[in-house]
């Protein structure tokens, strides 16, 4: 029984991690159809802000990871949107190339600034005793955090004027402009929101894995697979794909090895995209956000 | 041609030359060392200390007037933890630098990429890392420890102090696989039992599942042959899951990449390691070395790792061989090393074993404590017994195989 509880925490933990690394990308891709190749680097930046905020600036870990990291990375995201991305809306391949360039530049810049040694933080929460087993308290925190992020994002899109405008702009930007909205500003803030969510995710994962300028590469594939498989609906798609892949990879990791777990995730993604080319929400939960 | 150019240079550049510390050194072609070590991309935790130590060794030698009156020129390449770049840079170094010796490779995979290339171009090769043993190649000298020197000592110590049941976690490439086999072999010899072996690719950072698998297997201790920056997550998650201190951990890779400095004391105090070199060694040679090293890099230098020392003593042995041979040419240097060259390094006496081209040296079992390694037990002058079983370069100088342990 204890073991089942420990396993359940791990399954939920894997799902939560997938949500945290991909939700920012889902916002940017799902709402704006911008393929943001620099998403992994936004995660990396979030991790560095958390580490330097805590170890160097002496901030409380929770402040630096939950407040400072999203703000800083969100600002960076909006800056890059203004500099580069806004000129390329509607040109999907071009945004991909441009953001890839941004990602290379960010890796280079961070390597120059902080060096290329893996840096880390100690996990800030004690472990959890469940019967004869102990589990990581921090994983439990990640599960709660992912849940909160999803709930708040849902509220933002569903209950606020910004959410309404953002959803309207993705459907018909010209109409929004005709009705007095400002699509330019909405795009900028949506991109900033996606970046801020990436910053939050990266900061939350930093104590688990350590951060190095090239760490984005190890997140980006999973993030894209999750977002593409999820389909058009940002939240429902992201959640359903995260659950599916989290469970698949954990089951195979548990039964066999982590390598097989990764392979299983990729095979599941290939099969899914073959039969649901528009992602899970292209077929199911169509009317959700 | 070179003579005339030299004369012209001498006439026009006398002012320039006189500013050099020793005009004599500048007149001859420098002795060239190419170094290929990952300074980025995940294995940089190992590469950076090695390159620092090599630079220190070269600077120290140049201060003494170089070798054979020639300056030493160190050319460093960063293959970025990428095997393709290893192959590319090894060729580039061998052809463009025309190096007298090459120091290269951290992982066994990178060594196996570089080794045939350097052999093909007749470039003497020093592999300075601890590894799984068994490489038999007259063109290569290994100045790091092998499992026959460390793993057997630490397995025996762990069986005696922790218990008979071990759970192995290892990196998923030739090093991790072969070392896991050695741990299994020594455990069985010592009457112990291997409960499970798990392999992780070098970029895996999520160890949650394995940690609960370890908990349900209830081993007496865990053996870690994890490697690189990503795998540091294991120790962090081990602590986060509350396992640190509940199940002891032994490793011959831990601390090789300064893990004990990167992690906090709460995360790794009490881990047991077995290495050829500890910065804490209380010998006059080591005290002098550490002092000089800190003078160059500052007293706050994180830790001089065993891998750094492997490169340092490799350099010392090579330099001694060059002096003995009176030449930096490949074959005379190999023959000089094959005389059983021996010297006192900061890690203790180091001697080239002519039969295997490996190194006879001291090893120490040590306990991780507050960012340092506290020596617990010392084994003097250990020969590379694992490699010696199958490798005899005196009888088969043309051998180029890597032999692996068989059951």
Automatic annotation (TrEMBL), chain A:
The cellular location(s) given in this protein's UniProt record come to: Cell membrane
- Which InterPro entries has this protein been placed in? ABC_transp_permease, BCAA_transport_permease
Topology relative to the membrane, per the entry? Answer: Multi-pass membrane protein
Query: So which residues are the signal peptide here?
Result: none
Q: According to the lineage, what is the superkingdom? A: Bacteria
Spans traversing the lipid bilayer: 6-30, 42-59, 65-85, 97-115, 135-157, 223-248, 254-276
**Record keywords, A-Z:** Amino-acid transport, Cell membrane, Membrane, Plasmid, Transmembrane, Transmembrane helix, Transport
What family is this protein classified in?
Belongs to the binding-protein-dependent transport system permease family. LivHM subfamily.
- UniProt xrefs under PANTHER family: ABC TRANSPORTER PERMEASE PROTEIN, BRANCHED-CHAIN AMINO ACID TRANSPORT SYSTEM PERMEASE PROTEIN LIVH
What is the protein's given name?
Answer: Branched-chain amino acid ABC transporter permease
Source organism:
Thioclava litoralis
User: What is this organism's lineage?
Assistant: Bacteria, Pseudomonadati, Pseudomonadota, Alphaproteobacteria, Rhodobacterales
